[in-house]
Design a protein that fits this description.
The protein is an alpha/beta fold and 309 residues long. 42% of the residues lie in helices and 23% in strands. Belongs to the LysR transcriptional regulatory family.
Length: 309
């Protein structure tokens, strides 16, 4: 039978690349990690590592076992959590979310969580989607709330659930010479020489602007960056450029907006979890509370049957 701690060391080596990094991640010394991996090789009778300069790397057999190991360890975690499935949600849930989700959905849910589940608590961190997904990879959080665009979909590596969708509008300066809706690519030509405002910590806005403008045959001039939507709105109000905003957001109500009717242009909110913890009672309770809050705020924009993977 494969020792799970030894298998975990192999999986961590495949992820982190060096023995010292595995030692830092697991709390073992470098020599202890080396001994675990050597023991795993003896146990299986297969060479899992090979010398590569001053370091080691996985052999083809080591890579195959590491791939199996990720699945095995996730299944073990899920099984352990399943034993406590009937218990009330409890414990600390480490959460990362983008600013808008934190402000409008997570913070309002804190009082309800304290009332319903007194033995459950949250550790909240504000991060943009790419940072949140990296934290999941590094076991830095248990659940994240992220967004993407229908025209710039993310590639998911984690269990995920669609929580809501919202139309995207173009925020423009008050004096922009444009109609109230953009229904043809040529309608974007009035912004050919206008700067665009994009996110400072995620490339999703850049790619959305590029794909929209590509329909008209040109590339956007992305000049300003801010991840706080209030700052984006401030820049638009100051006449410094145009940007995409969720139609239902408070920031969109502060500025002049133009409807985008160039296909299905929507922003989607997702929950993502570490593999094996998606059935943890505290995680599912949190996700359901957040989704209920989203539905109560924007009932028309939430799909009746959210996608779950």
């Amino acid at each position: 039978m494969v020792d799970l701690e030894k298998l975990r060391a192999l999986v961590e080596l495949s992820r982190l690349g060096t023995m010292s990094a595995v030692a830092d991640a697991t709390g073992y010394g470098t020599s202890a990690v080396s001994q675990q991996l050597a023991g795993l090789e003896r146990q299986l009778g297969v060479d899992l590592l090979e010398a590569h300069g001053r370091r080691v790397r996985l052999t083809p057999a080591g890579r195959r076992l590491a791939a199996h190991g990720k699945t095995i360890l996730a299944a073990v975690t899920a099984a352990q959590l399943d034993l406590a499935e009937q218990a009330a949600p409890s414990g600390v849930v480490r959460v990362a979310a983008y600013g808008t989700a934190m402000r409008r959905h997570l913070i309002p849910a804190l009082a309800e969580i304290a009332d319903r589940y007194p033995t459950m608590s949250l550790e909240l961190q504000e991060y943009e989607p790419p940072e949140t997904l990296t934290l999941l990879d590094d076991d830095g959080i248990d659940v994240g709330f992220v967004y993407d665009y229908t025209l710039v979909p993310r590639v998911w590596r984690h269990p995920h659930t669609l929580l809501s969708t919202s139309r995207v509008v173009l925020a423009v300066p008050a004096d922009a010479k444009v109609a109230d809706r953009i229904s043809e690519p040529s309608d974007l030509d009035v912004f050919r020489d206008t700067p665009w405002i994009a996110n400072s910590r995620d490339t999703g806005d850049d790619e959305l602007a590029a794909r929209l403008c590509a329909l008209a045959g040109w590339a956007p001039d992305i000049r300003h960056r801010a991840d706080d939507l209030d700052l984006v709105a401030d820049l638009v109000l100051a006449g410094q450029g145009v940007s995409v905003l969720p139609a239902e957001s408070q920031e969109a109500k502060r500025v002049r907006t133009v409807a985008l009717e160039l296909g299905n242009v929507e922003r989607r909110m997702w929950s993502v979890t570490r593999a094996g913890t998606q059935t943890w009672r505290a995680t599912t309770a949190l996700i359901e509370l957040v989704r209920s809050h989203v539905v109560s705020q924007y009932p028309a924009d939430v799909p009746l049957s959210p996608e779950v993977n």
